[in-house]
Amino acid sequence: MAITTNCLKECIEIILKMEMEKKFNYRFTDDINEITKLESIVHSMGEEWSIDDKLQFSINLVLEELISNIIFYGFKQKNSNNIINLEASINKDEIVITLSDNAIEFNILEQEEKVISSNSVEEQEVGGLGIHFIKNLTSFIKYNRKSGFNYLTLSFILKP
Amino acid sequence: MKIRSKNITSFNLFELNGRLNQDDLIELENQINEKMKYGSKYFVFDISQLSYINSSGLRILIKTQKQLKLFDGYLVLVDPMDNVRELMKLSELEGFLRLRHGLKETIKEFI
Fold it and tell me: Would you say residue A7 lies in a domain?
């Protein structure tokens, strides 16, 4: 069977993609002190994948807002069966992070993002800031609920 | 020490350093409330060494600014690092939180 140029090109792209894709996994408990580990986790990712400081800051902030929200409000009671998994991977264009947890159902895409500004802040209760940051510091968010788990996939675009 | 505060005649100076975790934020809020309880109206936050802040930290600053305004007071934030400044820009609160450049110059505003 002859290998066409297109097929060869596709094969090379897949091999290159596989070469570039690396994974990072971490499991958090439902203890809020776990948040302090995020700094070193994201720093390790940054070192391993040569992520600039600005993107590390964004990833750290988004993960902190999400994970602390799960720990504070997601579990009915503290329990060693409470699970929060983080899986991160990188390809040539982006960092993709999936958080999966067995907390109560929570679809961030359905949450109101309160737009606040210097003009209106005095009349408003300050809420929804964390959601505002999560939605604005990521380039893509997908949510699924399956078998008692929330799956939240986030993408952070790498600078060319 | 991540949070240091000093009473200087007409204002309170806070220095925030590094990353503020949950316990630090509780401590910060307590210190602010304590100063306000004794009638302090002007707060200067030197955040030139603050490398990270989350939405809870920002909420404390916003809440403080709102409370101080009720007594014709205000707070200013001096020399935020780029990432922290970007976050304030993203939350569209740069104006409300009164960002300033240079601690010495800022202090002159209060004496």
Answer: no
Tokens of A123: 């009349």
Q: What is the ipTM of this complex?
A: 0.88
Nearest CA of chain A to the CA of B62: how many Å?
A: 8
Question: Which residue type does A35 have?
Answer: I
In a domain, A132, yes or no: yes
What is the per-residue DSSP string for A80-124?
TT--EEEEEEE-SSEEEEEEEE-SS---GGGS------TTTGGGS
Beta bridge partners of A69: none
Name the 3-class secondary structure at A79: coil
Query: Rounded to the nearest 5 degrees, what angle is found at the Cα of A125, between the Cα atoms of A120 and A129?
Result: 85
In a domain, A65, yes or no: yes
Q: Is residue A15 part of a domain?
A: no
Kindly determine whether residue A118 and residue B94, on different chains, have CB atoms separated by under 8 Å: yes
Give A-chain residues touching B62 at CB under 8 angstroms: 121, 126
Q: What is the domain range of residue A109?
A: 22-157
pLDDT by residue for chain A (160 residues), tens digit each? 555 676 667 656 655 554 555 788 999 999 988 898 999 999 999 999 999 999 999 999 999 999 999 999 999 999 999 999 999 999 999 999 999 999 999 999 998 776 565 555 665 555 688 999 999 999 999 999 999 999 999 999 998 7
